[in-house]
């Protein structure tokens, strides 16, 4: 089936081949220089992350290990939070004290039933490598672990939200902050501390927050069917209640139109972060750091476009094709201008799919237009100064007409006039016009006019009467 698909979509096959053959990693790991515990950490990274593993391992060597360990610590937290077999009396203290657990040599946990439980069973490898980090990096990871652990513990104890789902947009964004915004904050602090990003990013927390919010909201929009099957409700009631009366109605074919409009509403909410994301990515000072932040964001805008007005989102877990993913990665790993073109392309696709019958039609159109306008301010397609210079150069290069060419042109015009005159006279003669007395009558007319002008006629009384 896959072969048939790519035969029908050769462009996607071409993108896959190009990525496999021509993509050259900015940096490469050297396993020969790594300790056994660090190699084990990279094995866990490959095991627990399909989307981030490759891009993390291409990071600048200064941040390769810190970001890998940061990811594994957060994955450990996430595994504990997601494991419904762990009683709250055990789970909550584990989450709140995980930043302390990071300091305990040999710590392991063997009672998890989650798919990534192997990471917890061998977490001592992560702890060993954490203690080898530079102190600034270690302190950042520990601080973010403390914040995220407490945030997860708060949500684990929030039985009302677990039973009834997220109620307001404010609660929705607070949840996204704890599970993604804090990740963005930690990564930004690591990037700035390593001098791979502009230090000013540390002074603009709203940009960092938007990076995390955009990714997490995209995941929530895409995973609505999977979350519904697992009994989770991350779509805020403040949004879905505008379209259906009950949460379950979103998955009832009778309300398919309303459900699609609800997804459009969620997409509109996510798109408000795009400008901040582009502004943030402009602050990267290293190509590998740029690739690290750009690829997930480009994938997110493509996923939003795929989910927008797509009823399949309510029936299964949709995802962009491998060919499209490779094309996005090829473009996103070049520079900010090419990345902006990716965002422009998908914003236009969203606008093209927008339905005038959708209650948010105008708002979505305006939001897409704002994205394009923002990109235009970063990289104008038409530079006024350049246009003036090109016009002047064009005028200078245009050849002028020589004297001989002018004479030829006049001769041609006169010949045409004479030909047309002769043709008209001939037609008139053929139709019966007489020209034999023309010249004599004309001479008499001129002579009589001259005589009248020389002797004016006297006026008599009779003439007056």
TrEMBL record:
Known catalysed reaction(s)?
Answer: 2 (2E,6E)-farnesyl diphosphate + NADH + H(+) = squalene + 2 diphosphate + NAD(+); 2 (2E,6E)-farnesyl diphosphate + NADPH + H(+) = squalene + 2 diphosphate + NADP(+)
Cofactor(s) needed by this chain? Mg(2+)
Its transmembrane ranges are 407-430
Claim: Transit peptide is one of the keywords in the record: no
Q: Name one GO molecular function term.
A: squalene synthase [NAD(P)H] activity
Question: Which keywords does the record carry?
Answer: Lipid biosynthesis, Lipid metabolism, Membrane, Steroid biosynthesis, Steroid metabolism, Sterol biosynthesis, Sterol metabolism, Transferase, Transmembrane, Transmembrane helix
Q: Where in the cell is it found?
A: Membrane
Which pathway does this polypeptide act in?
Terpene metabolism; lanosterol biosynthesis; lanosterol from farnesyl diphosphate: step 1/3
Gene Ontology cellular-component terms listed: endoplasmic reticulum membrane
Say which domain of life the source belongs to.
Eukaryota
The record's EC number reads 2.5.1.21
Functional description taken from the UniProt entry: Catalyzes the condensation of 2 farnesyl pyrophosphate (FPP) moieties to form squalene.
Which family is it part of? Belongs to the phytoene/squalene synthase family.
What NCBIfam families does the entry give?
A: squal_synth
Q: What is this protein called?
A: Squalene synthase
Which source organism?
A: Hypocrea jecorina (strain QM6a) (Trichoderma reesei)
């Amino acid at each position: 089936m896959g072969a048939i698909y790519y035969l029908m979509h050769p462009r996607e096959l071409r993108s896959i081949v190009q990525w496999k053959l021509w993509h050259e990693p900015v940096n490469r790991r050297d396993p020969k220089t790594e300790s056994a515990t660090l190699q084990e950490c990279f094995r866990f990274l490959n095991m627990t992350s399909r989307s981030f593993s490759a891009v993390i391992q291409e990071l600048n060597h200064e941040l390769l290990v810190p970001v890998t360990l940061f990811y594994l610590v957060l994955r450990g937290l996430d595994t504990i939070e997601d494991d419904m077999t762990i009683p709250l009396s055990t789970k909550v203290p584990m989450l709140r004290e995980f930043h302390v657990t990071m300091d305990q040599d040999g710590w392991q946990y063997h009672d998890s039933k989650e798919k990534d439980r192997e990471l917890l069973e061998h977490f001592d490898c992560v702890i060993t490598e954490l203690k080898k980090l530079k102190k600034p990096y270690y302190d950042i990871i520990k601080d973010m672990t403390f914040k995220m652990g407490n945030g997860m513990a708060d949500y684990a104890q929030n039985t009302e939200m677990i039973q009834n789902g997220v109620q307001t947009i404010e609660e929705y964004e607070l949840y996204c902050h704890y599970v993604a915004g804090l990740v963005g904050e930690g990564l930004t602090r690591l990037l700035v501390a390593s001098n791979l990003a502009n230090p000013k990013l540390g002074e603009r927390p709203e940009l960092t927050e938007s990076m995390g919010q955009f990714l997490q909201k995209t995941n929530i929009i895409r995973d609505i069917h999977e979350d519904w099957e697992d009994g989770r409700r991350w779509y805020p009631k403040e949004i879905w209640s505008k379209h259906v009366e009950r949460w379950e109605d979103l998955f009832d074919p009778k309300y398919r139109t309303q459900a699609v409009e609800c997804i459009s509403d969620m997409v509109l909410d996510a798109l408000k972060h795009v400008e901040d994301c582009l502004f943030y990515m402009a602050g990267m000072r290293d190509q590998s750091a740029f690739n690290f932040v750009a690829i997930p964001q480009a994938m997110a805008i493509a996923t939003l476009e795929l989910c927008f007005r797509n009823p399949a989102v309510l029936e299964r877990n949709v995802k962009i094709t491998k060919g499209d993913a490779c094309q996005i990665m090829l473009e996103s790993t070049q520079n900010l201008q090419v990345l902006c073109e990716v965002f422009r392309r998908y914003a236009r696709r969203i606008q093209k799919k927008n339905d005038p019958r959708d209650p948010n039609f105008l708002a979505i159109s305006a939001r897409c237009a704002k994205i394009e306008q923002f990109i235009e301010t970063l990289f104008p397609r038409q530079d006024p100064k350049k246009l003036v210079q090109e016009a002047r150069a064009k005028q200078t290069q245009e050849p002028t007409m020589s004297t001989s060419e002018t004479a030829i042109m006049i001769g041609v015009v006169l010949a045409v006039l004479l030909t047309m005159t002769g043709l008209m006279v001939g037609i008139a003669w053929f139709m019966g016009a007489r020209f034999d007395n023309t010249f004599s009558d004309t001479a008499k007319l001129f002579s009589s006019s001259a005589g009248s002008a020389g002797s004016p006629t006297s006026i008599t009384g009779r003439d007056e009467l």
